[in-house]
Each structure stands twice: as C-alpha cells, then as structure tokens.
Write the structure tokens for this entry.
Amino acid sequence: MNISYNWLKDYLRIDTEVSELSTILTSIGLEVEGIEEWESVKGGMRGFVIGKVLTCSKHPDADRLSITTVDAGGASPLNIVCGAPNVKAGQTVVVALEGAVVYKGNEQFEIKRSKIRGQQSEGMICAEDELGIGSSHDGILVINESVKPGMPAADYFSVTRDIVFGIGLTPNRIDCGSHYGVARDLAAFFNLQKPTTVSLPDVSAFKAGKAVNPIQITVESPDKCARYTGLTIRNIQVSESPKWLKNKLEAIGLSPINNVVDITNFILHELGQPLHAFDADAIKGNRVIVKTVPEKTRFVTLDSMERELSSADLMICNEEEPMCLAGVFGGITSGIKPATQNVFLESACFNPVSIRKSSRRHDLHTDASYRFERGSDPEVTVFALKRAALLIQELAGGDIDGDIIDVYPNEVKRAEVDITFRNIDRLIGKEIAPVTVRKILSSLEIKILQENQTGMRVEVPPYRVDVTREADIIEEILRIYGFNNIEIGQEMHSVV
C-alpha cells in the first residue's frame, strides 16, 4: 500500500524527517518496505527557468533554424539556436539551462553548451513534450503573460514533489488502509510526547436537496450487507479532474479517469471506505436492490468480460438486471461515462466473507474488495457519502436529489472488552502507569466505559475489526508505548 507524505499532512500536522517517520511507522506495526520520491513532472523541471526572447534572427547556414538571445535571469543573455517555427522576439518561454535533463517519452538527454551549424547555443527553448506537461511538439511553448525571467519553471507550473511510503500492511490492520487511518495511528504515537490531534475533512456544508425523483434502495440480503447508503446527484458534468486531485492519485500509483470516478478513488484512499458511482439513468425502475441472483446468471463487468454468477454472489441490481458485483467490480452498462449527467453514489458495509468468496471465485481483486474482505467500518458510510457529494458538487456541479438514504436495519454493536492492570503488566513485561494506559487508549479512540483499581471495561471502535479480546487491547497499548521501551529482563521465566 502506498502512502503519500503530502497527503498525510492534510489530516495531521507533521514535519518529521522522512527516515525518522519511516522508523516510527514500522515501530507501530506499519512496516515501511520502501520509500520513493515522486514528482508531478518527471525530473521536477530542475534547471528549467522562464525566459524572455530578446532577439530572433535567421541562422545564416540553416533555413529552419533561428538564432536567439534570451534573458533567462542570468548576468547576461543566453545565445540559443532554436529550430521551432514559431519562435519570435518578445515571447515569454521556458528555457532548459546547461546541465538540465530533458525527459521526452522514454528518452532523456542532458542540455550541453554546443555549436549548432557553427553558432553557439547555451540552452534550449522548450516545447510542451520536452517539459513533460503535454504531447505537443509543433513549436515552442509560449507563455501569454508577464513572468520575470529566471523564475524556476517548477514554481510557475506548480510542480509537486512528494515522498511515498510503501507499507506492507498486514491483513489485520485494514484500519490503516487509508491516509486518514495512517494519520490517526501516527497521532496516537505522537500524542504520548505532546498533544496531537488528527482532523477529518469538514462535511458540515452538506445539505439535502429537494427531492425530484430519488432512487429507492431495498436490501434483500441483510446477512451479506449490514448497511447500504445511497445518494442521487443530478445535472453533473463529467470532465477531467483538477491538477490537485490527479496529483494525489498519481503519487500513489493510480491513473486518473474522470472527476467523478477519481473522487470515489480519492475517498477510498483517504478514508478507507470504497464507494461506487452509477450512471443513475441506467438504474431501471429507479430502484437499487441489494440481493443475490439465480445461479449461472450472465453478467458483463467493466473489463468487458462476461462472467457466470454464483447464487452466493451479492449483486447490486435494478428492477431488471444486475449492475455491479457488490464490493468487487462494476458492470459495463451502469458505469460513469463522459455523457453521464446524473449519478447515484453507493457507500456500503458488506459482509467480509461474502466479498472474499466472490473476489476469489471470479479472480477479481480490486482496491475495494481488498478493504471489504478484511472488514470495513459501518459507521463511516454516511460521512464518506457526504464527503463525496461535496467534492462532486465542487468539481462536477450538480444538485443533490433529496437526502441520503440509509438502510441500516441492525446496528453493528461496538465490542466491549474487560482488561486488568495486572494482565497489562504481565503480558507486556513492564509496569505501565494507569495514566499512560488511559492516554494511549484515548488516543486510539478506545473508550473507557468503567474503571476501578484492578482494571477497566473499554469500548472498541468498529473500524478496529481485529481488536476483540483483552490480549488485543494489551497489544495495542504495547504497540503505541513502544516495543523498544520494554527493557530486557535479567532472568528468564517459563510461561505455563
């Protein structure tokens, strides 16, 4: 799993040095297997500056070349031979200085001072493809605004740099299968040293709209779907995502698709809650039905493959046909298309065993199934839907049709666990002050319901699907307290 350092900072105030943060992540059970630098433009435009073409004349020995002088912010203008047909005096351009490396497709070359047909050239005036910001090579890129010569091109084009941590997430730690989840865990660690909080995005601006023709939801298989939440948004415009969103996704290895789909992927990696966006006009009968279908029903998924369904597969259907293999993969007819104007958003909590079996049965392993089959948080579905709706309205416009429809017949109860101070000290191998235990539990959002001289009764948040026993709580205390803070004893004892 890839985690962006820049993205973490959206939820947690942090300036810890990269190697130290890597050590901390590993120490709390999120093993860092690799660290990579990422840049929104390959090479980061190092050695590229904004320049002003001062003069431009024909090369005496080559009809297709021009000799220019360019103010690139240095002590004196640069002499640059340029082969672009559109170069003219007075233009504001981008210049690759001597020593800069140009990445063009799969090739790269370093700019060197040289003579071109007998004329000195001390740099290169760049086209879009030579900058890594486009594919055009019809001529040099001309900037139609006043920019001071010498300004780094990376600043002008807002090149983003990031550090990406590759984390080997163990199956039990799906609570950290998102940037907010990792930030939340780091906040618990840092809180032992100084007060540290982690902040969720603000969704208070969400407001229900006037109901026009909202899509209704029926859950016929509650044993496979604990909670199903949906919302209809009309009059959206599907388009390319803004740069900030594409950067977030590309930094962790995802390819942007369009603003609506990108938002669902963004929230999955932000909150750990998979979402699915349907073209609302493809939902026949204006009904979403969560159910199983007859054995050997044929269904074509987004990858254009026809699959034979099992009667055990949970499907998201309309009144006439299945539209999505629940929690795993969408269908080809109901997905978001460039012409989509109305969207139905799904945010659900599916049975992990059901999702795992369907994923393996059809050999479909997606970011969504990865999270659902390890256990998702039933309490985050509505929040994630509000977050998605606000982002869609910001990036794609649209009107919310009515309110969120939330089908949650049997509320998932939070686990309650009894722990004793004696067992905490015995299993950890060191006496830890109750005040420290309380602080760690509070930081992990584990609520203390009752406490006496011998121990406590605590309530575990549902996103910690792996914490159900006293030993699990004690392991959490030790994880945040720090394995390295437990001294090795001088004697060995057998445990019976």
